[in-house]
């Protein structure tokens, strides 16, 4: 059973939620990084986060900062260090807006 707040968030923002969970074709840099051609935006973010945790890329002194290795730099605009709050927006840049479907 879902909490009332979560139900309201899903029903009020169903289009935004759909954008997060719909499968999309990945651009070349993300395709190379993830090793697959389609994934949702949410799935992409989760895989990038998993890569960061697995490779201990968080700064030990400041866990809100990620120290990028060469592979991670390839999808984060070549940045050496990235704040965690900026991570979703940097990943989102790879996902182009699709034109609305006409009926």
Automatic annotation (TrEMBL):
Name of the featured protein: Upstream activation factor subunit UAF30
PROSITE patterns referenced in this protein's UniProt entry, alphabetically: SWIB_MDM2 (PS51925)
InterPro entries: SWIB_domain, SWIB_MDM2_dom_sf, SWIB_MDM2_domain
Pfam families: SWIB (PF02201)
Highest taxon of source: Eukaryota
Gene behind this protein: LOC108839602
Species annotation: Raphanus sativus
PANTHER family: SWI/SNF-RELATED MATRIX-ASSOCIATED ACTIN-DEPENDENT REGULATOR OF CHROMATIN SUBFAMILY D (PTHR13844)
């Amino acid at each position: 059973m879902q909490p009332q707040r979560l139900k309201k968030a899903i029903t009020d923002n169903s289009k935004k939620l759909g954008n997060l969970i719909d499968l999309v074709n990945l651009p070349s840099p993300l395709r190379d990084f993830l090793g697959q051609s389609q994934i949702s935006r949410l799935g992409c973010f989760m895989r990038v986060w998993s890569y960061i945790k697995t490779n201990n890329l968080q700064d030990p002194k400041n866990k809100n900062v990620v120290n990028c290795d060469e592979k991670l730099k390839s999808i984060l605009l070549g940045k050496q260090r990235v704040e965690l709050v900026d991570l979703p927006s940097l990943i989102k840049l790879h996902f182009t807006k699709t034109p609305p479907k006409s009926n």
